[in-house]
Amino acid sequence: MQNRRIVSGLLVGLLTIPLSFVQAGAVPFPTHKGVANEVSQDIEDNGGQKLPDKIASSLSDKDKLVAPNVVFTKDGEIKNAQTGAVITDKKIVGSGNTPPDPLAKTNGESFIPVEVGDVREHIRAESGDPNPDTVKKTDPGQKKTSPDNNKLVEKEGTPGSHPTKSGEVEGSTNSGPSLAPQTPKTFGGVAGSRSVIPSSFAQSLTSPPKDGNEQGARWGTYNGTKAFFDGDGQLFAQDAKKVIDVSKWQKGIDWQAVKNSGIEGAIIRTGFGSGGNEDGYAVRNINGARSVNMPFGVYHFSYAEDERDAVQEARDMISVLQKAGVRPSDMALPVVYDLEEFVWKDPSDGRTHMSPRTPEAYERIINSWWSTMQAAGYTNLSVYSYRAMLNGVLNKPSIHAKTHWVAAYSKRPGFNYHENYRGWQYTSSGRVPGIQGKVDLNAFGYKNPPVNMTWIIRQEDIAVGIAPPVSAVPLEYRFMQYNLDTKKWKEFQGWNSANWAGWSSEEGNYWLHVEVRHAQTHDFIGMRTISFKYQAGTTAVDGTYAGWRTNDILLGAVSDNPRARTEILIYDVGKKKWVTQFRGPWASWKPQPGIYWTHFRVYTSDGRLSQTKTYPFGA
Q1: Per-residue model confidence as pLDDT tens digits over 506-553
Q2: Residue 463 to residue 457: CA distance in whole angstroms
Q3: How far apart are CA 168 and CA 429, in angstroms?
Q4: pTM above the 0.90 mark?
Q5: Beta strands in 273-324 (DSSP E)
Q6: Which Pfam families does the UniProt entry name for this protein (predicted)?
Q7: Which of 529, 585, 588, 523 is nearest to 553 (CA)?
């Protein structure tokens, strides 16, 4: 059947929803049913991808088109979009207890799911035909359904890119501890809201965009850095990198040619589902990226139906990384959990496997995968999905907070990113030298200038320093700590022009948080938060001494800090209690016969414990 391409000229404006009206879990995007000249959000996100000219009348408006001619029904059937017949091709529906490669149904190209009702409205809008459920002229160059066995027949040619991915969400709610007393100016750019950029470094597109997507999103420059802009010319990310995501469907990649073309990173598929469904090119692609010193990350397509599946998918992902000799520190781009709608069949028992139906179920799945990856040392993690899912079964603040990479082949990524660092898969139709066929293209970067932090551990405290994120403008800084044990914020240096601060606190686990603003306008510029295990400076016990004299034992502790304070405590093992305590670096002790522990403590000059040492002693 002849397929139509979504034309950018047909796209009218999205319904704008004030953030004050958006509630977590219920974002009221329009359905556009019965409005011929409007295009649904999913259709816009799907921009540039081919849709069928005909939809079988037996299909429900709420069924999902997940490939140019494949529909997932609400009841878990996999059907031909144009005939309504059940598809039996094992490459599409699965075989035994093994799910299908999620890219097989699109011959390796990405596709953002669209509701069948929206496709019908799109057909009406383009053709003026009130009944889109009619057979159109066949285009032999497109995929078609074999009437004999209802199997998808693929045309010959080179494969394209990566899973069925999509759009983004507006107005999600932030989560986690609130960042102490704040003002709108101070936090104008936090959690994905549009930040106010001082006029002193206004947008500067110094050269025409070389590429982007069909809806006008494009590359340019901003404040002297490479940047990506949405179709309205609004900044998506500065200090941005052009990144591809690849799988076995790209086959052999000439990585040097890819790098020479200007690609600055790659996210590589490790596999899909659980049970060892490794991507056949995963290790080869990882080695290829490393051979040309290209920054990379990895992703895994999830078929998880519960927490147990998620844990196994994480373990499978870790296994591939270990097989490739990849350590967490080797990856500059995130480790990604790819969440998309799925349906597959197990012919051995007739069971239908479907993606979870509630945000609560997905929250448990994501948390299980996340904690398993973290326990293995992988901390740069992200969820990937598209707008329809993020507004539906993934519409939960805790999930949105973990989602740093979203797909939308439209004018803008409507998702309210919770982090300054973000990624947008803006097209599935990229062409890159060194890769056969199409490939997904992404922009990864920062909405606000990245704030780089450094520190020096001194005897009495820790000196924390900030590298100014922009030059030639007056800046102010604020330094704060969040105690993960007491769950309390504390400001240890208020707003001023000093980009260094001395941090003194008790031993424990903290978030160290720094904000930067314009000194004159107080416009928010950037922030940085890192986790930190605090110890009170470098004050340490250089050496201890315990020796018999004529009538007693001399105990001593020497510190590297002349202003340090020292305590010596004695524990009687037989009596199971502390029996004496001395203040100062030296003490005279007359013990009774027995076994003891001698315990030395050293403090900073203001009384914060820095180090302890304990030794057994017999008298």
Answers
A1: 677 777 788 888 888 887 777 777 766 655 444 444 444 455 556 677
A2: 6
A3: 19
A4: no
A5: 296-301
A6: Glyco_hydro_25 (PF01183)
A7: 588
